[in-house]
Description:
8-stranded parallel β-barrel; 16 strands; alpha/beta
Amino acid sequence: MPTDKVAVFDTTLRDGEQAAGTRLGSREKVTLARQLARLNVDIIEAGYPNSSPEDFEAVRQIAEEIEGPIICALSRVVAEDIHACGKALAQARRPRIHTGIGASDIHVMGKFRDQRYGRTLAEKRVTILRLAVEAVKLAKTYVDDVQFYTEDAGRADLDYLCEMIEAVISAGATVVNIPDTTGYTVPEQYGALIRSVRAKVPNIGRVTVSVHCHDDLGLAVSNSLAGVQNGARQVEGTINGIGERAGNASLEEIVMALRTRRDYFGLDTAIDAHEFRRTSRMVADMLGIPVPPNKAVVGSNAFAHSSGIHVDGVLKDRQTYEIMQPEDVGFEKSHVVLTARTGRAGLRDRLEKLRYHLTKEELDQAYQRFLLVADKKQEVYDEDLIAIVHDELHPAEETYRIEYLHIDSGTTTIPTATVCVQVETETRKAASIGDGPVDAVYKAIGAATNNPARLISYDIRSVTSGTEALGEATVQLQQGDIKVIGRGASTDVIEASARAYIDGLNKLSALNRRRESAQQQMFVDQARP
């Protein structure tokens, strides 16, 4: 029956957990199931009850506690599996058993090679068909809603596949899953398979056709969408696309493709996409599989812009480079990542958000310093910008300026510093040794400037995280009864320390000039009649 709604079947707790190196306990499964219910998936495949006592308990708890979605349990066409599913789902408000068997000749001959299933391919096919029908009938004694999977349908003989599907529908199946179990097909081929099944199976109108695709060739989402285009009305997948081998189809990508391109597909789901980011993070944390930054829809870079051209366009109208609203999938907003490729427009916008309103000249000055910092870092953070603004745009009146500094230091070397300092119109050079590289630099600067200031305190901290973080140095200098604070920032802590010391000397110099000017004015005033 035609519909514009596609049901979402989440198998994160079952197929997703089959990813190598992962394992979820029953408590974690219940927690994720609650979140999947908030996401408003239609079906939660809670697990494979007969695989272990813990999985049975997880399915039982989810069936008992979770309201809203259909709760599904997996089985083979084995009586013990189906009995375990029935027992685990006993308290479910909307239970479903998902059973099935291999449909391709590769699976038939490879998994059922024992002669008790038959000696020839034809004999084995007959046996497998009988097992499929018996499994559906047994599952129907426990639940009304039975889903049947035709494993490896992507490589199956079409006529035999259709024969199997017709038989399980006649036995009472309500949903037929036609999976590309090995990720072998391509979209045109898989779409054609779904179309052919719907055309050739006479009773197909009695069931929902479901697609379940794997990502071995990176085509799981594309194949799923091709299946939907050709009449499937249930899509199966996992959050973040996790799962066996290269993973499953990523549900967030399928859902947002349907929603963003509803003009093309004419279809949608009941998913509350605002919960995608939260769900994605929970799955990543619990399974220990980080989300790649460039992951579509939920990756940290999904709504991040760095290139100057892109940043400028997004700031003017975010539709220029964004086809989805970040808020719609749980992000607070899109953001500009400041790197060496970010232009002035992106820098100005970020500074204004930090409440720094710069003139064109000030922006140009800040931008040049920004580029120097950005060349040394992968990303420039807000804290870096604040340090740059204070260091570059609000310096003391400049009496001293460092032209260059050189450090020689090591575990077997006496720390030595050589500096070249511009003192008003004169260039001075000096060298000194010290207890450490910073001490050597400060002594060399003191010698070059011939300034008697005394260092009261020194502090260095990381403005941002990481080995390439911007360091901010703070010093307190004293000259006579005057005390000042000097600050400097750089990705090089020695350079930051030197900048802080020079900043403090400039402040002392400025204060001394003002004091002298005030004293001179006082003498002039006193000399007046």
